[in-house]
Design brief:
The chain has about 450 residues and is an alpha/beta fold. Helix 1 packs across helix 13. The chain is globular, with a radius of gyration of 23 Å.
Amino acid sequence: MKVLVLAPSAYLLGGVQDWLANLVPGLRASGLEVTVAVPDGDHHRHGPYARAYPALAAQPLANPSGSVEGRIRAIAALLGRLDPQLVLGVNLVDLYPAAQRARRRGGFHGQVVMTLHALQAEYFDDLQRHGAGIDAVIATNRLACRLASDRGGMEPTRVFYAPYGVPVPPWQGPGGDPAATLKLAWVGRLEQAQKRVHDLPPLLAELEALGIAIQLSIAGDGEERPALERSLAPRIAAGTVRLLGHVDQQRLAAEIYGHHHALVITSAWETGPIVAWQAMASGMAVVSSRYVGSGLEGALEHDATALLFPCGDVAAAAAQLARLRQGALLQRLSRAGHALVAGRYSGSASLAAWQRALTQVLELPRLPEIPPEPDPAPAGRLDRWLGRRRGEDLRQLLGQRFRHGSAGSEWPHSGGEADGAAEEALLATAGRVDHPGAPHG
């Protein structure tokens, strides 16, 4: 089976990048011919990506003009040249019109799959907009599967589930006395909307009010780092908090996973997270918000595999963390979490799920017809004067090139950015599906 994976190259950190780096070698070892292609431009740079993930042997995908039409042409040409049986899109929305064009030309006969890694309105809007040309969705989370149909309009028979996977060493319980000093870790992107990183300072204050001695290691980087550093400055100076910045997987294994009593998750929503499975695999307990995405997934069960608290309720979070001073409870959660990941989220379990999903996609009936290609807005004066395609011909002939101010403009994740109200409405709806009976804003 020939598989092409199209993924962004501007982002070298995060669960999606770790997932791809783990999945592709496994698919290749199982006999699949997998090609990975990533954009090469000003913000999306093939070189750093290839050095960060050498096992992927990613090919560069260039867009000389920087226009929408240039992106579509680049992808369509790649599809025509490789003609893979399956093409997996990883947050590159221009794949969908490019695949329609390559199909109409007869150079591409395969099936197009959206891999869904987020609970954000823009991706479900893309499904609505391009769904007639998307053969299937593979999501890493049970709620995301439901929303792909309910919100994105995809036929349920064309939606498949395949979770993230992590290495699982033999079980080893957390060391050190949690009653003396409770060692906690927080791992992720330092931002507020999803990860709620600013819940950490008041959470620490609640723990201090309970008289609990803690050490917190924060591994990650992002836009909120300066503000977080300011709010945590006294604790950083006192040595009770370490703000480590970006920590690669090797260092996470050496310094974080298995070296703390518990991982704290404060997120509003997740489609994993991989960090939870990694922590559990190392023997750490997980104390987590009841984030949107945790309900239907059914992995984090309160008092069974994890300790849970309402999202944003730092007093409740502190109360649950305080319970970990009981050594017997910590050991029980450690064993249960490790067993959960070994059975459901190990590298081998994840690989088997992805292999099964890819096979099921190939068995689907073909889409009835090739939908018309959407007509994007003109990229500039040449498009307005000559039409989009002739304008692009002249732009490339003259060597003209658009300069983009951000990675999201250069190679967009999605066809548009939903506003805050749309995201809040989606999360409220998703929360009611994921946690029936619970209050949702």
